[in-house]
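Hi! If you just cloned this repository, the fastest way to understand the data is to look at a raw example. We've pasted two of them here, unedited. The first protein comes first, obviously.
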Amino acid sequence: MRSGLLFFKQQLSTPTSASYHNPAMPLLLPYIALMATILITGAFSSGFDWLYPLRVIVSISILAYFANAYKPWLQPISLTAVLIGGGVFVFWLVAVPASAAQDLAFAQSLATAPLYWQYLWLGFRIIGATLTVPIIEELAFRGYLLAKLVNKDFEQVPPGHYTPLSFLASSALFGLLHGAWLAGTLAGMAYAFAYYQRKTLTDPITAHAVTNALLATYVIMTGHWSLW
């Protein structure tokens, strides 16, 4: 999710057309790199993903590589986006029950590591949940897919504009990535609505980041690790 800055509202739905031969690259490559890293680390992990920090390192690296493409979109965070993120967090707790068995299995696995590695792993997990994942997923789903489903030439779609089809389809695909499909789909709709408010990707990223930050805090305080 960001500092107090993020993306500035422009006339095109992507900040990349002037800088890259393929304007979709800064929006999609971070997501592709993240998915590839998940597959690779998953292949070397049995049960517990001890290599999760690699996801964060790869994500930060590729976002930094495209940093100049995102600079024109820097914009202050809005209170509306923060409230939307908080609302999604409350809804998630109601709609997605924790699993006591999964909570226990996670805690037992984490406890097998040295204490320093437990804290280091949790630190990377929090950074991933609250920073890199919201940025990468919102670039892909709200920055690219939402517009691509409106017009093949997605750069011609005004920021924050969507049709009923693009709104529902992009949210449903977003939901498929998040285990609890219905809850994930409704969360995707809320983030798309946040995008619509000021027509800047700052807002869905902020909302997503707030949701994940609150969820990370709740998980650590309660031990309901299955919600991660």
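Ok, and the second one:
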Amino acid sequence: MKRSDRHRALVDLLRARVEQPISVPRLADRFAVSTRTIERDICALQEAGIPIYGVPGRTGGFAIGRDFSLPPLAITPAEALAVLAGLGVMDGSPLARDAGRVRDKVLAAMSPQQRAQGRAFAARVALMAPDGPTEDEVARVVREVLVDPRVVELAYRDPRTGACTERSVEPLGMILVRGNWILVGWCRLRGGVRGFRTDGITAIRQTSERPPVRDPDPLASDLSRWDFLAAAP
């Protein structure tokens, strides 16, 4: 993440958690940087006029002034709840970090009471979200090729059998099935549509090759069947 993007995300996070200070180690873990980097970020934001202050003590950390505000989101409280519930399902997916930053922005725009209701509502709805995150490099490549399709070379370890294979895959999309995020694509090794659980992708490389345009009928037929996800990929 660029420094400027991290600064905006840091402000959004502090606004979303305005009721409770956040420690430097927790902030460092959230943004995958060192504690020293977070301290420099805080100083830069304070120098820019953002009312961030330190709270001493065992449960202390940094917080932002309650009266600090940005232009509000043009959505209703009910719409905000729907957004939070949808973002919660993205936990563990290749889009988890981006979804987390959007969630902070939505929470920051809500009143304290609405914020508490929103967190509780999202926790009740997002029951199928995976427990573990997608590995960072896998997440980055998957995000990029879904936005701008490119053939990927991947090493895959089947989470069920442990079998390891190497594939050339033309990405088609991403779906959530039984609590697992799956990259769906045309597998050149198997000559058909296959699904790859993101927690089974041990290595992935984006090539410069754009996938060919395939006949949509057989692809739609394959994607409409769920049994290909249960079969050995």
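That's it. A detail worth noticing about the second one: The first helix runs from residue 3 to 16.
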